[in-house]
What does this fold into?
Amino acid sequence: MSIDYAQSQSHCHKVMERILRLAGLPTDKDRDDFVFIVLREQTPDKRKQIIGYMLENMPDVGLLIIDGIRDVSDDSYAVALLQLYLTLGDTTGFRSG
It folds into this structure.
């Protein structure tokens, strides 16, 4: 699962296609095993809610990439995100690292 906080929809589409090409996968078909989410237009609380929902409802996530999380400027929000991911790791088996 790849999540982008900062880039436009069109830029993220190019990145997604590049990832698929590098993996030797077709770029013209939807995949059930690869999810790319663009959250640029969402509020911080909505982003947290969406990521939490996805991780709770997709038990087989093997890798989570969050591009742009470094740009979070609110320390309390960053701590809340970290706590969310740690809690999800305990409840869903997802492990961050």
Helices lie at 9-22, 44-57, 75-92.
